[in-house]
Amino acid sequence: xxxxxxxxxxxxxxxxxxxxxxxxxxxxxxxxxxxxxxxxxxxxxxxxxxxxxxxxxxxxxxxxxxxxxxxxxxxxxxxxxxxxxxxxxxxxxxxxxxxxxxxxxxxxxxxxxxxxxxxxxxxxxxxxxxxxxxxxx
Length: 137
Description:
The protein has two domains: 2-70, Gyrase A, domain 2; 93-137. The chain contains three helices and four strands; from the N terminus they run E-E-H-E-E-H-H. The protein has helices spanning 23-33, 61-70, 95-136; strands spanning 2-7, 10-14, 38-44, 49-54. It holds the Pfam family HMA_2.
């Protein structure tokens, strides 16, 4: 079992053996749910992981890891899991890009107004034609 992530009340374990639903996985979930202070265990086969939700006032992470080791479920990590490097920020738009965005917005607004006007005109013409036809009959 390898440690993936832990915050108070939530621990995620990952192992490629968890990629499929099996009798061993169901047994593991049952053993974890039986621990005092564990609220729920969610098996996520697509992520090859288990998420353990627990009450941090009743069960601290060290005790949880001790129980996991006692049940042969793994060892606590020696070092924290490294976080991925943050992505580089997108460069600020240039003056040309800002101008193009402004032009596109203006053009889009003009097109929207023209389309709305055409639909409104057509609707009014049909309504008037219907009223005239009804009045003639």
